[in-house]
Amino acid sequence: MSPTYSVSLEKIIDFHKLETVYLPKPADEIMIKTSEINRPGIVLTGYTDYFDPLRIQILGWTELGFLLNMSDDERDKALGYWLGLKPAAAVVTRGLEIPDYFIRECKRYEVPLLKTDEETSPFLAALIAFLNAELAPRITRHGVLVEVYGEGVLITGESGAGKSEAAIELIKRGHRLIADDAVEIRKINDDTLMGNSPSNIRHFVELRGIGIIDARRIFGMGAVKLSEKIDMVMQLEAWDSTKAYDRLGLDNEYADILGVKVPAMTVPITPGRNLAVIVETAAMNNRQKKMGYNAAKDLMRSLGMEDIEPVDKEVNIWSDHD
Quick one: which of 36, 192, 215, 301 is 20 to 30 A from 52 by CA? Predict the structure, then answer.
C-alpha cells in the first residue's frame, strides 16, 4: 500500500500568508491530507452526498452573498448542513468581511476559519499547486540533479562514476545544482516529476579527495536552486567493450519513475570524456526533441531509411542498493 502524506495547516497559513480568524487547536496539529479543494455552494442548499470533509473549503462573493440573502433560520440551517460535516478548514477570499454569525457557527462546530486578500481563482490555483507538491507520492534515490539550459537532468550511476564532479563543472559553466547524492523525487501529476534535495544536505556536494563543500557559499546563490522538473535521466556507467551502446538515438529509451516515463540514456565513462559537455549537449538535444526535431530521424530520412520504426526501451537507472 502506498504511503500517504499530510501537511500542517500552519505551513499552509505561513506559505500563503493567511489571516487566522479562528482555530479550534494549534495550526500545527491540524493536518490536511488531500490536495482536492471544495467550494461549498451546493452543500449550503442541503445536498451533502459525496461531500468530502477532508477538503479545504473556499468561500468568495458567491457563497457569502448566498448566505446574506437568507433569513436567519435558513442561514443557520444551511451552515448546519455544511459545518456539521466538519470540513478540514474554511478560507474566505477577497478580503471580504466575515459576518459574526459565520464566525460563531465555525466556533460552534470547531471548524478552522481563515482569510486571504487574494481573489478566489488565483488563490485556488496557488493552493492546489502547493498541496499537489506537498502531498505528492515521492521516493528518494541516489543521484545528482542539475538544471542545464532550463532542462532538469537527473544523473545516476554507481558511486565514483563522476556524478558530483560533472555537477561542479556544470556549475562553473553557469548551470545550477538542485541536489547531490540524494534526490527526493515527487510525482506532481501523471506526467510531471519534481526533484529537490533533502533539507539537511541541501547545496552540499561530496568530492572525493576534497571532502564536503557548500556549493551555495563557494559559487554563489546563482549556482543553486531549490527544485526542478525532471526532464531527462542520464545514467553513467563504466565502459564495457562487450556492450553495444546506442550510437544513433533512434530508439525511445526511458526510465519509469513513479509510473512516469522520463527520456533516458546510458553514457559510458572513459578517461578523458568531458561529462559536462556531454550533459549540456544531451540537454539541448532533449529540448530539440520536445520541440519536434530529431536529428537521428532527419539523418535517416536523408539516407532514404525513414521507414525504420523506433522502439521503446525501458532503462534501469537504479542500482540494487538504491
Answer: 192
